[in-house]
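Deliverable D2.4 — example input (structure tokens):
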């Protein structure tokens, strides 16, 4: 009796195809390149493929001067430019230009994420809460309250586009903070940014903000 072996997955997917990776591996690679991230919650099938084919995917990314950042505990992965030292390497990924408010918002969300993790809760935040927190920095970003609120909402939309704020299906103005943010901000970066923004907060409001930040970071 002859043994039966399943046929290997075809790698030539179209007439001019010279690639070597199977279809689903390519899909995972494209998702990483398209960004902003690949995670098990939004892409369960692709996450399984990434775990299985991590080595060849890393190889393809390295050829593009990119590193794969992958956290198996959080089940999140994304790409970033490789640290190439003095090598004059081309830049493939477009860097997002962050305004002052974008940076303050990201720091606040990172702190909320840390706090939620410590309490074993989902990191959920409301739009009104974000607006209230960022008003501490209104004097640094705008002299017009209506204009400031508009800038805050624009920052929220930008962060949503990068899948850091995930819309909660049953709510129009509440969001869950993606664990991806843990990989984007190191503890040292959080401390440096916290100190910078604390110095920009009006004296009468700095002390409460300082107490909150020290407790969360």
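Example output (designed residues):
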């Amino acid at each position: 009796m002859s043994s039966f072996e399943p046929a290997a997955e075809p790698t030539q997917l179209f007439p001019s195809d010279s690639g070597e990776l199977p279809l689903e591996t390519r899909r995972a690679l494209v998702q990483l390149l398209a960004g902003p991230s690949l995670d098990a919650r939004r892409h369960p099938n692709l996450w399984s493929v990434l775990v299985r084919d991590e080595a060849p995917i890393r190889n393809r990314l390295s050829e593009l001067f990119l590193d794969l950042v992958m956290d198996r505990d959080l089940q999140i992965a994304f790409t970033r430019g490789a640290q190439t030292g003095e090598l004059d390497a081309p830049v493939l990924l477009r860097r997002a230009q962050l305004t002052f408010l974008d940076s303050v918002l990201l720091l606040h969300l990172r702190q909320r994420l840390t706090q939620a993790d410590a309490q074993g809760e989902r990191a959920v935040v409301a739009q009104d809460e974000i607006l209230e927190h960022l008003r501490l920095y209104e004097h640094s970003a705008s002299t017009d309250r209506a204009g400031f609120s508009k800038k805050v909402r624009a920052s929220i939309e930008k962060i949503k586009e990068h899948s850091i704020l995930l819309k909660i299906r049953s709510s129009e103005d509440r969001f869950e903070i993606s664990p991806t943010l843990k990989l984007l901000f190191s503890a040292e970066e959080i401390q440096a940014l916290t100190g910078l923004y604390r110095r920009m907060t009006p004296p009468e409001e700095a002390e409460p903000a300082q107490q909150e930040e020290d407790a969360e970071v």
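Residues 106 and 159 are 8 Å apart (CA to CA).
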